[in-house]
Amino acid sequence: MSESRIDSAVSLEAARPLRWFVPALLILAVLLSTACSGPKKKEKLANRLVRGDVTTDELFNRATTLFQKRKFVDARRWLRVIEAHAPDSSVFPDVKLAIADSYFFDKMATYIEASVEYKSFLTHFPTHKKADYAQYQYAMCFFTEIENADRDQTSTFTAYTEFKNLIDRHPNSPYAGKAKEKIDLCLLRLAEHEFTVGYYYFRRGRGFEKSAESRLKGIINNYEGQYDPEKTYFFLAETLWRREKFKEAIFYYQNLARNYAESEYMPFVQDKLARWERIKEEGQDPGEITAEVPSDPLNTF
What we know:
Elements: H1 3-37, H2 45-51, H3 56-68, H4 72-85, H5 92-104, H6 111-124, H7 131-143, H8 154-169, H9 176-204, H10 209-222, H11 229-242, H12 246-259, H13 266-282
């Protein structure tokens, strides 16, 4: 075999693997590309809604089903799509209210989040047929946050105000009766708080009597029927006596003597009434005669 033919044969043998190697590289590249891209992403609900593949009613019905199963986070995901992309739909008011409810009934959410959504509904739809319900729920967001009598009562006062707004704006609402019951409870807690503060000043003694008097009188003037008159009258009378407002103090002592004859405060009341007679005769307070120290009134809360 000639030298040229030998060289040609060697070249052909060397090139043969390359004919398989190049296509193999292309196939491998395609496979790697497919593997890296992963599964096709699920199309967003918003895109399907905008394109018309799904209706707002269908989305809302699906969200309602999820809500009924207490899958509140999933329900909100569907509801938020309608809120963001279909504000002119007929179900939009119901969507706004459902979003608020999904926060209120979701134990993993907060009442603050719910209150924001109820307020948003009331701002957008103040005359809607469900506005009374939204107002009641808005008030409930604060009612559920009410603290004990010795704590800040901002939530109590806000709840009271919003329940009152419900009654003023929707007097014939089926929620008006519930609101009145909640108002009474709010006033009772506010009165208890005022007494707690007034009693604190009373215990502080000299220099704080004026503050105690203001708080205790505020209870009588602002919370009629929502406070304990027995202990309120007694400690107001004691405060007035300390301030040497004897005649005004006697008014409350006499009320206690007439209406609460079995009261634990009665020995103390009788002492003050006896001393009052001496004051009228002698012009000065003779000091304690038969007084007994009453128990701590805050233990009754």
